[in-house]
Specification:
With 342 residues, the chain is α/β, with parallel strands linked by helices. The protein has two domains: 202 residues, inorganic pyrophosphatase (n-terminal core) (Alpha-Beta Complex); 125 residues, Roll (Diaminopimelate Epimerase, Chain A, domain 1). It is built from 13 helices and twelve strands. A six-stranded parallel beta sheet has the order 3-2-1-4-5-6, with helices on both faces. The protein has a six-stranded mixed beta sheet with strand order 7-8-9-10-12-11. Strand 9 and strand 10 form a beta hairpin. Helix 5 packs across helix 6, helix 6 packs antiparallel against helix 7 and helix 6 packs across helix 8. The longest helix has 15 residues. The radius of gyration is 20 Å and the shape is globular. It binds guanosine-5'-monophosphate and manganese (II) ion (MN). The site of guanosine-5'-monophosphate (5GP) has 14 residues, from strand 11 and strand 12.
Length: 342
């Protein structure tokens, strides 16, 4: 897609600027890959660019070029605040609602910097001066490539940048399995391969980095913490704080577990509830027309995409699950035969 007022943004970026690139809390491969790819494109043009993540990101992303220079707001608040205060341009990638960056949200909202938002999540907040926003896009990384093309920046994408962007596309399309896997996204991937992306290496680095404890956690979760509500085409997984302690769960270890619940034949809605000290974090996945974005937004203070969303609850783990189960009963009809609506 094309960015409105791209020429104006190009003009702003025609002299070296202090730029902050930021991503949503709990950044995934698309968020971090887009940010690092984009940051590198800008750096090569002489801008002083820093990527700030609201919190720590998983180890399986720690191969991305430039990741060692990422500032983690939660751990380096003073530096991060200083960088944000001095930024002339702030780029918000893979989110479009300032709620998604926690305490950084108000700082960005109140900043006088030029704001650029590049994202593909539903219901964006109107805070940016420049928007590259489309729910048609399968990944923010795809939008970064489109923008690079429009701005004549593709030559700044080398193998390392292409790997970062490819990782975002590969994961956000669920390994090219979700309905967001369009002709265009394949074309972008073809171009990324042309720029040097090593698809097999990226797949290996992102998907095959299980630790022994994670694999054992998976075994435990699938045998002891998976509940199938067959009558409703729903399956969910839960994880208590004790479980996490027992299996030494690290950031990223629970990522993707919800998809195992969705991989059961005829399941329309899958959820994963992860207990933490002050809340329960929830991941939702669905098949077909049942929108987990709406579901998460309405009942669990969250949002995301139509078929992949998240939210949170301040109830106990048990009460959160009870609430979910009563909603499932309420939505019985909407949850039926969703395979036909893909
Ligand atoms: P995941 O389940 O992988 O954490 O998240 C799935 C999708 O939902 C991602 O696109 C993510 O950005 C979004 N998401 C996850 N948690 C939240 C949340 O608490 N609020 C909102 N608005 N979106 C979320
Ligand atoms: Mn994304």
């Amino acid at each position: 897609m094309l960015m409105k007022d791209a020429a104006k943004l190009k003009q702003i970026l025609s002299t070296p600027r202090r730029v902050v690139v930021t991503v949503h809390t709990n950044p995934d491969a698309d968020a971090l890959g887009s940010a690092l790819g984009f940051a590198s494109i800008l750096k090569q043009q002489g801008h002083a660019v820093t990527v700030i993540s609201p919190n720590e990101y998983p180890d399986f992303l720690k191969w991305m070029k430039g990741q060692e220079e990422v500032i983690v707001f939660e751990q380096q608040q003073e530096i991060a605040r200083e960088l944000l205060a001095r930024a002339e341009v702030i780029c918000c990638l893979d989110f479009s609602d300032l709620e998604r960056i926690g305490h950084m949200g108000d700082i960005v909202r109140q900043s006088s910097a030029v704001k650029v938002m590049i994202d593909h999540h539903l219901e964006p907040e109107a805070f940016a001066d420049f928007e590259q926003w489309s729910i048609e896009a399968g990944a923010t990384a795809e939008l970064i490539f489109d923008l690079a093309e429009e701005m004549d920046w593709v030559h700044y994408i080398g193998a390392a940048e292409a790997d970062c962007l490819y990782a975002g596309i590969m994961t956000d399309t669920g390994g090219f399995r979700h309905p967001n896997t369009t002709q265009h996204i394949h074309e972008v991937v073809a171009r990324l391969i042309g720029r040097g992306a090593n698809t097999a290496r990226v797949a290996k680095l992102v998907y095959d980095t299980n630790t022994e404890s994670r694999l054992r956690l998976m075994g435990f979760v699938l045998s002891q913490r998976l509940v199938v509500m067959k009558e409703y085409d729903v399956a969910y997984i839960y994880l208590t704080l004790d479980d996490q302690k027992k299996f030494n769960v690290q950031k990223g270890d629970t990522e993707g577990l919800v998809n195992y619940a969705l991989s059961i034949a005829n399941i329309t809605l899958a959820a994963m509830f992860t207990e933490s000290k002050d809340m329960v974090k929830i991941s939702f996945r669905s098949v077909g027309a049942f929108s987990v974005n709406e579901f998460a937004r309405k009942y669990f203070n969250g949002g995301g995409h139509a078929n992949a969303a998240g939210g949170k609850s301040e109830l106990s783990l048990q009460d959160t699950i009870e609430q979910f189960k009563s909603l499932v009963i309420k939505y019985k009809q909407e949850l039926e035969h969703e395979i036909n609506t893909i």
